[in-house]
Amino acid sequence: MPWQLLKYGFKRSHDEPRFFPEARPLKKHYDVVIIGGGGHGMACAYYLAKDHGITDVAVLEQGYIGGGNTGRNTTIVRSNYLTPEGVKFYDTSVKLFEDLADDFDLNIFYSTRGHFTLAHTDSALRTMRWRAEVNKHLGVASDVVDLKTLAEEVPYMDLTCAGHSPVMGALYHAPGAVARHDAVAWGYARGAYNRGVELHQKTRVLNIRTDNGRVCGVETDRGFISCRQVISMVAGSTPRITEMVGLSTPIEIYPLQACVTEPVKPFMDTIVVSGSLHVYVSQSSRGELVMGASVDPSVLHSTRSSFDFTEGLADKMLDLFPFVSRLNVMRQWAGMSDITPDFAPIMGVTPVKGFYLDAGWGTWGFKATPVSGKTMAWTLAHERNHELIEPFRLSRFADFDLVGEKGAASVGH
Amino acid sequence: MKLLECPVIGKRPISEFDYMGEIRIPPLAADEKTWSEYVFNRKGAPCSLKEAWYHRPTGRWYVVVRNTLTDEIEAHVDISEVQYELPA
């Protein structure tokens, strides 16, 4: 248990100190400028200061901290990927997540739930056996389970799926977890700030200046700042940033929507995903069902919600959990997903010297928050790619050396 | 429900269409670098994108120019404008 909670309980006055500082003027120069104050940006700033002692860092955020995709995902953390490079990378992340609350002295509501991915077809079951074997080989808990186990573990689910798409088995991943996404961003931000990193919210980057193929500064709506290194950690806004340095990438932006129901008594203690039905669901610590589906059908730079989404999602949810027909949807929202052709991220150095990319996080970015921060901080400090992110380098497309993670993303790919 | 106004079949729900992405003319003779750029790289930033939509019930293709920031259809493009000759 975080000590701060105990101390807080015994305190007479319960007013909390500010997490982040009031707005301050920008300096004229920083060693490193991080564009994007979401989970990834904050984690990178935190590990730059903590692991590498680099504290002359400014994080520029056009909105507020954690207000982009960090605050819009469905908070699932897992590492049962398909490719060895993916499994190693995400497993490092899960292990970092497990210790975060102690590192931050802040409750991030990290809750290990167990994660079921349902198979409705022979081919899905075959892919799951493959995934389970790859996972086990790399030391990640992952098993194919039969219908009997499913009926015991998720008794409230209709395994016939309303009769038209019966469940045949599932991939069970015991370390699958959920966490409070805001707290992850706040914890990293406070840790970075306490170590001397500057956080600048409501500061938009307008252009990136280069000189002879090398980054020399960033123009913002609060003036120009010179810097030695710039890293873009902006998810759905990545193409707007890469355009500023004349870099072409395979990233396309598709909205990803999610919604929550009204809170009910806890009944669902696992995370359930169906790749064939394109739906995933877990119950939050407040009792709401947190539900998501696949990305919207066409490219769009917008966070608007649509009725088509809730209608389609409810259709699938009712097949699996008929009794939720009585629940009302409380909120729905969307985030902009930066999708890559091989469903793996794009990380590390770029042809523009001093410009680094942490992008292509599509629908799988939250679970990678700690490891992307840690590996990108290492990459900035050493000016070359960390070994864990080497498979995710931008040049893999020019080399026709893609990652092939497609089979393992949760839904819709 | 979002509707797509088509020159032949009128207004139809967007759910009847498959999205086929940006229409581009491939480099028909190219080195590996040009080819990989064509295969993978995309215009990612918000723009007016010339893209193909396939109407499943009627099996027709439509080419529209759509603003990817506002989601408005700006123009319909005649299919002859995006045709190209295959090398002999």
Structure, explained:
The complex is a heterodimer of chains A (413) and B (88). Chain A is an alpha+beta fold and 413 residues long. Chain A folds into two domains: 26-73 and 181-250 and 342-408, 3-Layer(bba) Sandwich (FAD/NAD(P)-binding domain); 107-178 and 252-337, D-Amino Acid Oxidase, Chain A, domain 2. Helix content of chain A is 28%, strand content 24%. Chain A has helices spanning 3-10, 39-52, 84-104, 122-137, 147-153, 181-194, 238-244, 307-320, 369-382; strands at 29-35, 57-60, 76-77, 111-112, 115-119, 143-145, 169-173, 177-178, 198-200, 205-211, 214-220, 223-232, 252-261, 271-274, 279-283, 289-292, 329-339, 346-349, 355-359. In chain A, a hairpin with a 5-residue loop joins strand 18 and strand 19. The longest helix of chain A is centred in the first third of the chain and has 21 residues, at 84-104. Chain B contains one helix and six strands; from the N terminus they run βββαβββ. Chain B has a single domain, classed as Folate-binding fold (2-Layer Sandwich), CATH 3.30.2270. The interface between A and B is medium-sized, with 27 and 27 residues. Chain A: Pfam families: DAO (PF01266). Chain A: Its EC number is 1.5.3.1. Chain A: GO terms for molecular function: sarcosine oxidase activity. Chain A: InterPro entries: FAD-dep_OxRdtase (IPR006076), FAD/NAD-bd_sf (IPR036188), Rhodanese-like_dom (IPR001763).
